[in-house]
Amino acid sequence: MEAPIKVYIVEDIAISRMSLETMLLENNYIVSGSAAKAEVAWIDIQQTKPNLILLDINLSGDKNGIWLAQKVRENFKIPIVYLTAYGDQQTLKEVLETKPNGYLMKPYQEATLLTTITIALNNFLESEKEREVFKENNDSDVFIFIKDRSMKVKININDIYYIKSDGNYLEIKLKEKKYVVRNKLMEFKKQLPHTIFFQSHQRYLVNISKIKVVGKDYVSINDENIPLSLKYKKDLEQVLIAK
User: Fold this and answer.
1) Whole-angstrom Cα distance, residue 53 to residue 177?
2) Dist CA 227 CA 83 (whole Å)
3) Which one, of 182, 146, 144, lies nearest residue 166 by Cα?
4) Phi, psi for residue 109 in degrees, rounded to 5
5) pLDDT digit string (tens) for 95-132?
């Protein structure tokens, strides 16, 4: 029998907090605690170590939900689902920097909340499994060989910032160096872990961990603006939130 999932709630509106508690308890979750202030929640979370945190962004007190998410990320591996009434670009930018596992706009329905929690937990567990596999098999490093003129060069894929397609050639950009190889983007993509590289444009693959800013039609990597097509933007934002 699986152990019940412990959820911690951070919400400064009392009636919303009570409603969340009721929904969770009626669906066989354990509410390990709740708080209206980020500072209080942080003390509780360190003691209760929940399996998931439901976190409002705007809270009473000096600290907001993003501050709390940063503290959790620095100290624990606990999935976080944001609850917010704000969906503007600035809020989204700050949210993405804390790598949440879910993002739910208020007002929400019970079914949507439960689905979001389930997806966040499953994605988190799968992501942790993949990290362990990479760590065990590759000692946290994954290498590929590329042909540079008459030589084969071994490079760590974590050092790749982005890959740009130009016809039958690819430009592989590292921080201070680039390689040009003969290959097709989709063929080269098969060599790369899908958890690290994502297509932002028909001609570009980007290293998700190198993204600093997600703009309207670009992502910023190493002070360069890489095109971001509308076709890929929504999926990329979801991937960044789940990370």
Assistant:
1) 41
2) 30
3) 182
4) -95, 160
5) 888 888 998 988 889 999 999 999 999 888 877 665 55
- What whole-number distance in Å separates Cα of residue 129 and Cα of residue 147? 32
Neighbour tally for 204: CB within 10 Å: 22
**Tokens at residue 213, please?**
């800013």
Contacts of 82 (CB under 8 A, 6+ apart): 55, 56, 57, 65, 69, 95, 100, 102, 103, 104
Q: What is the pTM of this model?
A: 0.57
Q: What is the pLDDT of residue 129?
A: 64
DSSP string, 17-69: HHHHHHHHHHTT-EEEEEESBHHHHHHHHHHH--SEEEEESS-BSS--HHHHH
Q: According to DSSP H, which parts of the chain are helical?
A: 14-26, 38-48, 65-75, 89-97, 110-138, 185-189, 230-242
